[in-house]
């Protein structure tokens, strides 16, 4: 395995990580933004409200995207195992 192949494998791994984490990060950031604006407008200074909604939103999106996460990780793992088998 050369340097270019190692860089290619690392690049593919980073792309898979981004595909897996982006929906969760986007939903969490959106919920945080909406709650910050809501708290600013209504002068509610309750920090646990924002944290609770972020946790709920994160869990909800993880349950929704769990099959896609599984498929992405399974496909990438199979590709890596095939590359390992080719080395021998």
Automatic annotation (TrEMBL):
Keywords: Cell membrane, Cell projection, Cilium, Flagellum, Membrane, Transmembrane, Transmembrane helix. GO terms for biological process: protein secretion. It is found in: Cell membrane. The chain crosses the membrane at residues 12-35, 55-73. It comes from the Bacteria. One of its GO terms (cellular component) is plasma membrane. It is a multi-pass membrane protein. Belongs to the FliQ/MopD/SpaQ family. This is Flagellar biosynthesis protein FliQ.
